[in-house]
Design a protein that fits this description.
By secondary structure, the protein is α+β, with helices and mostly antiparallel strands. It has six helices and 26 strands.
C-alpha cells in the first residue's frame, strides 16, 4: 500500500512541476515583443491570410518569427513548448491533410515530394540501404504512395531506378500527376563527382517505370568552372503544373592576389520541359526580353512564368505563358522610392506581394500590387507592441525574408 502511495505522490509532484514549467514557458512567451501587420492603405482583408517569416536578432541570438495581422509566433528549437505545438509543414493544406489522414501522412516530411489536388495526394521518396551517401550500391528504389481522397483507396508500390548503383545520392525535386502517370524529377550525384537531373515517368496502373530521361549533366572539366541551376520560386510546390523550368548558368571562379574570388558568367540559358510530351519547349522571347530574363528573378504560378527585374527606379514584371509560348500583355512597371528595394517577391492571383526594405532599416513594410494596372492595392507596416524597448531599434533587428499564404 505504501508503494502505491509513493507512486501517487510522485505523479502529483510531476503534474505540478509540469504545470509550473508550462506556466513559466507561457509567461516567457507572453513577455516577448509582439510584431504585427498594420494596414496603412487598402482593405485589411487583403492581408488576412498572409504570414511573413523573419528573424529577430537579439542578445547574439537569431530567433525565427512568423508575423500576421493578429500578432507573431516565435520559433525556438530548444523549447519543448514550441516542439509540441510546432506545425510540420509551411503549407497549411498539408497540415490539414495531416490531421485528416494521419495514417497516410505518417513519416512524410518533405513538401517537395508531394503532389496534391482535390482528388488525389501522391508522395514519392527515394530510399536506400546505406546512410552513407559516399557508399556505392545503396540499392536505391523509388517508393510511391498515393491516396484517393474521395474513396480512400491507397496505392503503394516501389520501382527500380536505372543504374542506381552508380549514384551516392538521389533526391526528389518535383512530383506531378499527368493523366495516369506520375512524373518525378530527381537530382542525382554520382560516386565520382558527376551529377544531374532526371525525369522519370511511372505508370500507376502498371506500377512500373515506363520512361527515364536525363535533362541536366554537370561534369565540368576544370576545377575553376562550375554550373549553377535555379528553379523558379513558387507559392505551392504541390500544385499541378505541366512544365518543369530551370535556369542554367556556367560560372568561372578566379582567385585574386588579394585573396578575393572573382566570379565570371560564361554562359546562361533557360530550359522548359513539357511534362506531358516529355520534350523541351523553346523559350520564345525577343533578344531584348531574353537579356532581361537572364538578369531576372523567376516565379512560376500554374502554367505562367514571371520575370521580375529591378533597378533603382522601378520593378518590371514580364508575364510569359508556357502553354501559348509567348509574353502575355505589356510589361508591368512599378515605380519605387529612392533607397527602397524589394525582396521576398511572390505572385498570387495576378498580384505581386513584396517586402520593402529601406536603407535606414527603421521601416518594415509590405506591398500588394495589381499586375494588370501596376497600382498599389495594399500597403502594410510591420509594427511592434508589448515591449519596453525602443521600438525603432527593435524593428532594425528584424529581418523579413518570406511570404506564406495560410
Amino acid at each position: 500500500m505504501k508503494r502505491y502511495r509513493n507512486l501517487a505522490v510522485i505523479a502529483a509532484v510531476t503534474t505540478i512541476s509540469l504545470g509550473v514549467f508550462y506556466t513559466k514557458v507561457a509567461t516567457s512567451e507572453s513577455n516577448r515583443p509582439v510584431f504585427y501587420i498594420s494596414t496603412e492603405q487598402g482593405e485589411t482583408s487583403a492581408a488576412d491570410n498572409l504570414e511573413i517569416q523573419g528573424n529577430l536578432f537579439e542578445n547574439n541570438f537569431n530567433r525565427s518569427v512568423d508575423i500576421t495581422t493578429k500578432g507573431s509566433e516565435y520559433k525556438n528549437d530548444n523549447s519543448i513548448f514550441d516542439v509540441i505545438n510546432r506545425k510540420t509543414y509551411s503549407l497549411e493544406k498539408l497540415n490539414t491533410l495531416q490531421n485528416e489522414e494521419k495514417n497516410f501522412m505518417r513519416g512524410k516530411n518533405n513538401e517537395s515530394n508531394f503532389y496534391l489536388d482535390k482528388d488525389y495526394v501522391w508522395y514519392a521518396d527515394v530510399r536506400g540501404k546505406n546512410v552513407n551517401f559516399e557508399a556505392r550500391n545503396n540499392d536505391y528504389k523509388l517508393y510511391i504512395d498515393g491516396l484517393d481522397l474521395q474513396s480512400k483507396d491507397r496505392f503503394k508500390f516501389k520501382v527500380n531506378i536505372p543504374n542506381e548503383e552508380e549514384y551516392s545520392y538521389i533526391g526528389i525535386e518535383d512530383v506531378q500527376l499527368v493523366g495516369k502517370e506520375l512524373v518525378v524529377t530527381t537530382f542525382q550525384n554520382k560516386n565520382y563527382g558527376e551529377n544531374g537531373r532526371y525525369i522519370y515517368r511511372i505508370s500507376i496502373n502498371k506500377k512500373q517505370m515506363i520512361d527515364s530521361k536525363q535533362i541536366t549533366i554537370d561534369k565540368d572539366a576544370e576545377a575553376t568552372i562550375h554550373t549553377e541551376y535555379t528553379n523558379p520560386s513558387e507559392i505551392d510546390f504541390t500544385k499541378s503544373k505541366k512544365y518543369y523550368v530551370y535556369k542554367q548558368v556556367k560560372m568561372k571562379t578566379t582567385n585574386q592576389e588579394d585573396g578575393e574570388v572573382l566570379s565570371e558568367e560564361l554562359h546562361s540559358a533557360m530550359h522548359i520541359w513539357n511534362l506531358e510530351t516529355g520534350k523541351e519547349d523553346k523559350l520564345n522571347l525577343t533578344k531584348e526580353q531574353l537579356e532581361m530574363s537572364k538578369q531576372s528573378e523567376l516565379f512560376q504560378s500554374d502554367n505562367m512564368l514571371y520575370f521580375i527585374s529591378h533597378n533603382d527606379q522601378n520593378v518590371t514584371v514580364l508575364k510569359y505563358s508556357l502553354e501559348r509560348k509567348k509574353i502575355e500583355g505589356e510589361p508591368t512597371v512599378i515605380s519605387i522610392e529612392s533607397g527602397v528595394s524589394f525582396s521576398g517577391n511572390k505572385i498570387i492571383d495576378g498580384k505581386l506581394y513584396t517586402i520593402a526594405n529601406r536603407e535606414n532599416g527603421e521601416d518594415r513594410s509590405i506591398y500588394i500590387f495589381d499586375l494588370a494596372t501596376g497600382k498599389t492595392i495594399y500597403e502594410g507596416a510591420i509594427k511592434v507592441k508589448n515591449t519596453q524597448e525602443n521600438k525603432e531599434q527593435l524593428l532594425k533587428k528584424l529581418e523579413l525574408y518570406e511570404f506564406n499564404v495560410r
